[in-house]
Predict the structure.
Amino acid sequence: VRVTDPSGAPLADVLLTTLSGRRLASARTDARGEARIERLAAGEHRVAAVALDRPPAERRVAVPRDEALEIVLGEPYADVEALEPVLR
């Protein structure tokens, strides 16, 4: 799996997860935006990509697959100057 931003730049530390049968499989992308999820059962899977600074994405993939799955995550969330105080 390769994860990029809309400009094509690789995204590191993106959590990828999927269910393979009853087993949760996951991996994190490296500095090149790449990760490999091992030991997936043959068939169709939904792969979720989650980063802390931008909206998540989900893609369907059929296993086995010859080429890498590409996932593009959206633009980063806008900076928040401060959180509103919580009244109790």
